[in-house]
């Protein structure tokens, strides 16, 4: 396992380099200029050139990338052009809110999705299975931002049970968690159901039934354990979603977080801040995939041998 983990870590180095290239050049190819947000009415072209030189925007993109990468390797994400504060400080201030929402939505979608998948697989071909399958289809097609607006209208505006927006206390986390987690429930439930149905058709399950074990013991103790490998794959990918998947939800519910910070920075063309936020979100996905590979290899040695 140690050798497998080290090999996977080494493979992250070229991935990190490619991700940094994509993040840097995408934001610089987007139309717009952060200098436009700094210029005052009546500013002269000479003043514009001075501002560009101050932030290194007068140099070529290759020179700017090399400078940014050099600072990045030392842990310096740069300074926000618009806000004039270190990017790392801005991310650190908003990151806890994104983690709070992301972890809550991940736990909600994981536990509910696995439970729904187990129930659907246990009652395959019945109305229970059809009802859960219908919910899975609905949950995978409803846009999270539309669901968020609907939840705000019903539970915050009409009923007044929870706050409309913000991050004031645990009650303000309920609606964003539901809106962000519904799609995850559908995905996890679908994968769990399919994996359990396929596992239940294997010979060892028939042998367990022949031995007279209760069906619920077979489903929960044996079938579910063997069916968790593909579920772990999905969950590992959703670890990165903890930070990146709730961008629109944060904006709809006016919550602080990386999503709201990123959208503001994009509107202002704040290059260093956008690069820092996108790099953070991309690395979350990469690290999530790494954790998934390690967990899969620990659960199933065949996965470790296949990827050696």
TrEMBL record:
Stated family: Belongs to the binding-protein-dependent transport system permease family.
CDD domains linked to this entry: TM_PBP2 (cd06261)
Pfam families according to UniProt: BPD_transp_1, BPD_transp_1_N
Membrane topology field: Multi-pass membrane protein
InterPro entries recorded: BPD_transp_1_N, MetI-like, MetI-like_sf
Transmembrane segments: 9-30, 103-123, 135-161, 173-192, 227-253, 273-295
Assigned keywords, A-Z: Cell membrane, Membrane, Transmembrane, Transmembrane helix, Transport
Keyword check for Transmembrane helix: yes
Domain ABC transmembrane type-1: 95-292
Subcellular location: Cell membrane
Protein name: Peptide/nickel transport system permease protein
Domain of life: Bacteria
């Amino acid at each position: 396992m140690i050798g497998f983990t080290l090999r996977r870590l080494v493979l992250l180095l070229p991935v990190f380099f490619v991700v940094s290239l994509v993040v840097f050049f995408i934001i610089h190819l987007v139309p717009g200029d952060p200098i436009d947000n700094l210029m005052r009415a009546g500013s002269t072209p000479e003043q514009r050139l001075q501002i560009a030189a101050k932030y290194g925007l007068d140099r070529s993109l290759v020179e700017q990338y090399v400078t940014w990468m050099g600072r990045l390797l030392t842990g310096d994400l740069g300074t926000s052009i618009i806000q004039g504060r270190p990017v790392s400080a801005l991310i650190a201030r908003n990151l806890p809110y994104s983690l709070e929402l992301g972890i809550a939505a991940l736990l909600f979608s994981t536990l509910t999705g696995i439970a729904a998948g187990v129930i659907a697989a246990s009652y395959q071909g019945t109305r229970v299975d059809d009802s859960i399958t219908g919910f899975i289809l609905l949950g995978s097609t409803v846009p999270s931002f539309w669901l968020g607006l609907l939840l705000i209208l019903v539970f915050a505006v009409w009923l007044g049970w929870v706050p409309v927006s913000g991050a004031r206390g645990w009650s303000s986390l309920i609606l964003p968690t539901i809106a962000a987690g519904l799609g995850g429930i559908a995905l996890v439930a679908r994968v769990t159901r399919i994996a359990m149905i396929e596992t239940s058709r294997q010979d060892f399950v028939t042998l367990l039934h022949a031995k007279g074990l209760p069906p619920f013991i077979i489903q929960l103790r044996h079938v579910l354990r063997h069916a968790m490998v593909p579920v772990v794959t999905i969950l590992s990918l959703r670890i990165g979603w903890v930070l990146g998947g709730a961008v629109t939800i944060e904006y709809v519910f006016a919550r602080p977080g990386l999503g709201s910070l990123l959208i503001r920075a994009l509107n202002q063309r704040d290059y260093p801040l956008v690069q820092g936020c996108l790099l953070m979100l991309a690395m979350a996905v990469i690290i999530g995939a790494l954790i998934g590979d390690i967990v899969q290899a620990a659960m199933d040695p065949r996965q470790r041998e296949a990827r050696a």
